[in-house]
Structure formats: structure tokens, C-alpha cells
Amino acid sequence: MEWLYILMPIAGVKIFWPGLVILGVGVGIIGGFFGMGGAWMVTPGLNILGFPMAFAIGTDIAHMAGKSLIATMRHGKFGNVDYKLGVIMIVGTVGGFEVGAQMVMWLERLGSVDKVVRYIYLILLFLIAWMVFHDVNKRRMKEKAAKAAGQEVDALATGIEWHKTLHKIKIPPMVHLHVAGIYCSAWLPILVSFLTGWLAGILGIGGGLIRMPALIYLLGCPTHVAVGTDLFEVMISGLYGAASFTFKGRTELVAAIVMLCGASIGAQVGTVATKYIKGYGIRIAFGLAVVGCAVSIAMKMLGSAYKELYKAMDIASTVLILGLVASMSIYIAVKMVQGAKAELAAKKAAN
Q1: How does residue 335 score in pLDDT terms, banded at 50, 70 and 90?
Q2: In whole angstroms, what is the distance from residue 42 CA to residue 54 CA?
Q3: CA–CA separation, 184 and 177 (whole Å)
Q4: What band does 206 get if pLDDT is binned at 50, 70 and 90?
Q5: Model's pTM, two decimal places?
Q6: What's the chain's Rg over C-alpha atoms?
Q7: Residue of 54, 40, 60, 199 lying closest to 113 (CA atoms)
Q8: Which of 226, 254, 301, 348 counts the highest number of beta carbons within 10 A?
């Protein structure tokens, strides 16, 4: 079975190349659908496949930059991108990313990068999963209360409404973001982008894992606008991050190219799917994916802590992360096809 493995010349490790293909295509679909580069799955996925963590971070960022460019262009055609908001957030994103990347190099010199990054990932994933499902639950409670009163809940209303409190902060300059339908202090998106950029630099992600929920819950963006605008930000931070990590010698270009070929196709599918799956359908699927990714990282950490479980946990975590990417991709693709068929049938009936 030697032909199933390919040598990565820069990282100096042999990698199961079909795993790279699955990650590329699957995360292309998932990233285009959720509005993020998908690095929250790819970085731990590459690490599970055998890349040292620093190389997993740099390689994923390089592949993510190209894929996000394709997905952003597609979302722009659907009117899902608030470019004004994206441009305002660039300053904070780039500054925060560089701070995070320098911290990764410092942790690598201390020999602690793998352990620290995995723990941060695990905590962050569980916090985000809690936030998503807490929001979904509160939204359902609102719907039940409205139904009992013979009313309907606003389609754009959310369960968690932290953004309403933050919008009361009127520190100038104030900005009106027309596509997102938001009027707030410019310092709010700048602060959010700095914090998400900082975490992105540490974790090797475009920031979408944190930024997409932040755009919804802290800024108050509608879900589909948060998806498109976040991809625009992922593209910017990805291009900058790819240059930064390549300069530091931590990018495996062979693996990045293999994944990008599949991701460029998958991103088209995922982006079109957002046309047919809106609002809370996206959030619930996102929450389930986050939980699965967190479990796979926990299994990898368990195997590292108990050497007798290492082989079993290594295989199980690999199967879980690849299975998660494949199953979520299939679900999104099927929903896209069903939605497209329903749209065509409606057009025929109208004619």
C-alpha cells in the first residue's frame, strides 16, 4: 500500500494522499456553505494525517487563501457580501493575525506548540458549539411563545441578542452597513476582527470559525450575509497568512496544491447550497460539525496521553474527521440538488 502515501519534501513526512483529496473536496463544500475556509477541520485533520502542527497550520492557510477567493466571488454574485464591513475589518484581522503567528513561532521554540494549540482548539470548539445550540434553543422558545400568543417571530430574529447591547455603544465614528442592515460604532467590527485574527494566527485558521458566529451574535449580521462577508475576510487573512508562514518555512506547497484542486470544485457546490438552505439550517449543521471536530481532537489527545491507546485513537480520530467531512459534504450537496430541483419545478409550474 506504499503507493497511497506521498513524501512531503518540505515537512519531510509521508502522508496518506487520498486523505488530502477528501479534505480538499469536502472542506471546499463545507467552507463555501458555512462561510469560512474550513481550517477548523483541516488544521487538526492535517495534524492527524501526520503533519507537525506548525506545518499543518501553514499548509492549511495556503490552501485556504485560494479556495476562499473562489467562494467569495460566487457569494458576491448572490449579494451576500458586505464589502464595506469587510474592508473595515481588514485592519484588525491583519494586525491580530501577525500577533498570533508570532506566538506560534514562540511556542514552537519552547516545544509546546502542539499541546497548546490542541487545548485552545478544544476549548474554543466546545464554547462555539454551546453558543450555537443555546441560540437555536432560545429561538425555538421564542417561536413557541409567539405561537401560543397567536403571533409570528421575525424571520431575522435570533435567540441570542448580544449585538443589541453592543450597538448601544456610540463611540465615533459611526458607520451604516447597508448590506448587513447594521448601524454601529466602527470600533466594534475592528475589535472583533482583531480578536478573531489573533486566534486565527495561533490556530492556523482564516478566522471563520470564530468570525462567522461573531458577525451573527456580536454584530447582528443576517446569517447569509455573515457567510459571504466572512469568506471575504478569510480570503484577506488567508493571503496574508500564506505569505507569512511561507516566509517562515512552514508551508508544504505540494499538499496545499493537492487540496486546492479539490477545494476549488467543492467551494462552488457549498456556495450555491446557501441559496437553498437559510438561517438556522446553516447554524444547526455548523454546530454539529464543530462538535464532531472537537471529539476527534480529544481522541487524538487521549492517544498521546496513553501510549497503549495511541494506535487505536489515531485510527479512530482519522476515520472520524474524514467521515465527518465526507458526510457533511454529501448532506450539503444533496440539499443543494433538492433545492435546485424544487426551484426548477416551481418555475415550470409558473410558466
Answers
A1: confident
A2: 13
A3: 8
A4: low
A5: 0.61
A6: 20
A7: 54
A8: 226
Contacts of 288 (CB under 8 A, 6+ apart): 328
**298-305 average pLDDT score:** 76
CB atoms within 10 A of CB 26: 30
Length of the chain: 351
pLDDT at 41 over 80: no
C-alpha 296/C-alpha 95 separation (Å) is 31
> Residue 190: phi, psi to the nearest 5?
-65, -45
* For residue 37, pLDDT beyond 60: no
pLDDT at 159: 67
